[in-house]
Structures are given as C-alpha cells and as structure tokens.
C-alpha cells in the first residue's frame, strides 16, 4: 500500500475503495457485454460494428486495470469474484439476446450513458479530496464519452442507410 499516498486522501478511504470496486464491477460487465456482443451481432454494417465493439471491449478492460491498480494503491482489494460484479454494479448488464446490430448499439449506448453519469459523480466526489483518483477517472470518462459518440455515429449511419433503401 502507498502509505503516504493513502494519507493525503481527504475523504473516507474505505468509502472511496467501495466506489472504485463498484466501478470496477461495471467495467468487467461492460467488457463482457462488448466482447460477446461482437461475437453474436448480426445485420447491416456488421463488420464496422464488430471492429468498434471489439476495440471498446479492450478499452473497458484497460479501465478495469486502472481501477484495480488504484484500489491496491489505496490498500484495498479489487473485487475477487464475478458473483460480486452483479451485486456491486451501478449500470448492470444487458445480455445481447437480440443480436440485431441496432439493438446491440442501443444497449451499449445506454451502458455508456450510465457510465458517464456515474463517473461524473465520482469526479465531483474526488475533485478536491483525491486528485490522483480524479485524474484516473478523468482519463476513463473521456474515453466513455468517445465510446458514446462512436456508437451513436454508427447507429446514425445505419439509420441513414436503411432510410435510403426505402
Ligand atoms: Fe469503461
Ligand atoms: Fe465505455
Ligand atoms: Mg471507439
């Protein structure tokens, strides 16, 4: 544990670790939702959607990495069991049971919008209290905003294409 690093945090550190473990659970679920979504997705523009979903899966995994590293620095334990993800998650998990591209894009856009609002709250909590965590969350939320934009752009392209076929 980073002794001095923990000392400078001006909030309840256990509470902060809990917030980070909830976010870590979200990231693992987001990772899997993208990863398995990329495997099952069907319909027009499938190739472009698969590439984007696969990249996003990798990026969610890198968010999990950043959060777990910070939890350990603070003297905490990253959530150890997948069963805990479902208990701790803020944004939940939406199984891609309907593999149609538009449905998968909608589900993931919803997930990104949830992630953005959760991370925005974490920024508010940590801005003054823990600039180190704040900086990590800022990196993550910036990428979630990119994710929302990428998926929304794909969904718009899909709609334009379907519109022209009518
Ligand atoms: Fe993420
Ligand atoms: Fe994301
Ligand atoms: Mg992207």
Detailed description of the structure:
The chain is built from 6 helices and no strands. With 166 residues, it is mainly α. Bound molecules: fe (iii) ion (2 copies) and magnesium ion.
Summarize the structure.
The protein has 166 residues and is mainly alpha-helical.
Question: How many beta strands in the DSSP annotation?
Answer: 0
Portion of residues in helices? over 70%
- Strand % is under 5%
Bound small molecules, which ones? Answer: fe (iii) ion, magnesium ion
Low-confidence stretches: none
**What's the average pLDDT?**
97
SS-based structural class?
Answer: mainly alpha
Give the distance, in angstroms, between the N- and C-terminal Cα atoms: 61 Å
Radius of gyration: 17 Å
Query: How would a crystallographer describe the biggest sheet?
Result: none
Q: Work out the helix count.
A: 6
Which outline best applies? elongated
Order of helices and strands: HHHHHH
Overview features:
166 residues, mainly alpha, 6 helices, elongated, binds fe (iii) ion, binds magnesium ion
Fold blueprint:
Layout (H helix, E strand, L loop, with lengths): L2 H5 L5 H28 L5 H28 L8 H7 L12 H26 L4 H35 L1
Helix pairs in contact: 2-3, 2-4, 2-5, 3-6, 5-6
Bound molecules: fe (iii) ion (2 copies) and magnesium ion.
One fe (iii) ion binds next to α2, α3 and α6.
């Amino acid at each position: 544990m980073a002794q001095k690093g923990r000392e400078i945090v001006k909030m309840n550190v256990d509470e902060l670790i809990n917030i980070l473990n909830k976010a870590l659970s979200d990231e693992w679920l987001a990772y899997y939702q993208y990863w398995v979504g990329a495997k099952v997705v069907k319909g027009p523009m499938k190739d472009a959607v698969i590439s984007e979903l696969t990249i996003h899966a990798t990026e969610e995994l890198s968010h999990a990495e950043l959060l777990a590293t910070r939890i350990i620095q603070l003297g905490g334990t990253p959530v150890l069991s997948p069963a805990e993800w479902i208990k701790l998650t803020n944004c939940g998990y939406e199984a891609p049971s309907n593999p149609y591209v538009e449905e998968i894009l909608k589900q993931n856009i919803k997930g990104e919008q949830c992630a953005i609002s959760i991370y925005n709250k974490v920024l508010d909590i940590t801005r003054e209290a823990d600039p180190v965590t704040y900086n990590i969350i800022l990196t993550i939320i910036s990428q979630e905003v990119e994710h929302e934009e990428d998926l929304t752009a794909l969904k718009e392209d899909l709609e334009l294409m379907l519109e022209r076929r009518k």
